[in-house]
Amino acid sequence: MVLPKREYQHSFDVLNSDGLTIWLFDSGGLAYCDIRNVLVPVDLATAYCVTSLIENIGKAIAQDECPFKLGPAEFDLAWDNGLSLLDDQTEISPAPFRQGSTPTRWTPPRGHQEIYLGFIDTTLKLHVPDGLVSRLSDDLVRLVVMDRSPDLELFITSEESSFALGDGSSCIHSSLNYRQLLAALHSMLFRAQNEVQDYFFSFHGAAVQYRHVNWLMPARSGAGKSTLVESLVDRGAHNFGDDVLMLDAGFNPITTGMPVCLKEGSPAFNDVGGLLMERLDGREFRYRWQDDEMRPQNNVDTIIVSPSFGKPPELKELSVHEKLERFLDLGYQVSIEGKVAAERLIDFLARTPGYDLSYSNSEQAIASIDDLASKTN
């Protein structure tokens, strides 16, 4: 059942078997597993090989003999005691952004005071050591809310200048300094809010609305997306976020009021001021909160731009296959519910312009974005 090679362009062939669907484009293929609910890109050579063995693959998946161990961009096909799709990963992560606890057991502290933190529709009940209440309340004043029904509950323990954060039955983070504790609390509250959203698709990157266009920017950490978002916000853009982005069923970014995260080394880092926090890797950052009165417009065009800072300026158009690769660049697997949803995502990628954007400064990037916006509008 090998298909003849030809140019697919924006039309594509769909191959189906028990538990597996493959879409073939001119530049590559996309494979979706009904049982695993995972969508991944495959190169053409792999795709053609898969088409000739699709019945065997479907049977292997149905019998749970075909474990998916998927990388960020492609996977190899091997035949060894049945069909397997292999690379260096060991587990599938259908919900990559869900915060999990470590197995370390601990005892919830007693005699602590309670602080309630809120962000949009999510409330965190925080049990805080007596000596930390005043300092933490002052530093988190933007998030402190009155007593209300919590969506999650966390405990802080402290020993000298080291802090641990847990959910009452297990330790989530330990050996944190104070700045890392602040960062962890923000991150968990933001991610808990993301998970209660009624979203269709999520990815790691950034998104803004600028010049009547929604710009989706899948990118690795350190690619320069936050600095670029900051520069666009200074020019009147609405920021949807620069960490985990949620898209609704129409593939529009969901407005959550997320701040821009400015990391140490970015041009605007020292200009923003505000609370200084620290990631677990030691890099310092600050949040810049945007004007609450800024609201995005509806029914605007969308363009996908994958930014890459520190390279010669270049704008390269992406294929459907390459667009999905950018969304998977960190190794996050696209977990999506059902074949119909996967088809909708592929259709969105096929009709939405996408580009790799390389630049050595924000002015170059904005000039390219302005040019694209002018052609779109």
Protein model, in words:
There is one protein chain. With 377 residues, the chain is an alpha+beta fold. The chain is 25% helix and 32% strand. The protein contains nine helices and 23 strands. It has helices at 44-52, 54-62, 133-139, 178-196, 225-234, 269-272, 320-327, 339-351, 362-376, and strands spanning 13-17, 20-24, 29-33, 38-42, 76-79, 83-86, 113-119, 122-128, 144-145, 152-159, 162-166, 171-176, 201-210, 213-218, 238-241, 244-247, 260-263, 277-278, 284-288, 301-309, 314-317, 334-335, 354-359. Strands 13, 14, 15, 16, 20, 21 and 23 form a seven-stranded mixed β-sheet that branches. The relative contact order is 0.13.
Task: Give the gist of this structure.
This protein is of the alpha+beta class. The chain is built from 9 helices and 23 strands.
How would you summarize the topology of this molecule?
Blueprint: E1 13-17, E2 20-24, E3 29-33, E4 38-42, H1 44-52, H2 54-62, E5 76-79, E6 83-86, E7 113-119, E8 122-128, H3 133-139, E9 144-145, E10 152-159, E11 162-166, E12 171-176, H4 178-196, E13 201-210, E14 213-218, H5 225-234, E15 238-241, E16 244-247, E17 260-263, H6 269-272, E18 277-278, E19 284-288, E20 301-309, E21 314-317, H7 320-327, E22 334-335, H8 339-351, E23 354-359, H9 362-376
Parallel strand pairs: 8-10, 14-20, 20-23
Antiparallel strand pairs: 1-2, 2-3, 3-4, 4-22, 5-6, 7-8, 7-9, 10-11, 11-12, 13-14, 13-15, 13-16, 17-19, 18-19, 21-23
Rounded mean pLDDT is 75
**What percentage of residues falls in helices of 4 or more residues?**
10-25%
Structural class: alpha+beta
Span between N and C termini?
Answer: 44 Å
Roughly how many Å is the radius of gyration?
23 Å
> How many β-strand stretches?
23
Please give the count of helices. 9
Assembly classification: single chain
β content, as a range? 25-35%
Main sheet record: 7 strands, mixed
Q: What low-confidence regions span 5 or more consecutive residues with pLDDT below 50?
A: 1-11, 64-105
General shape: globular
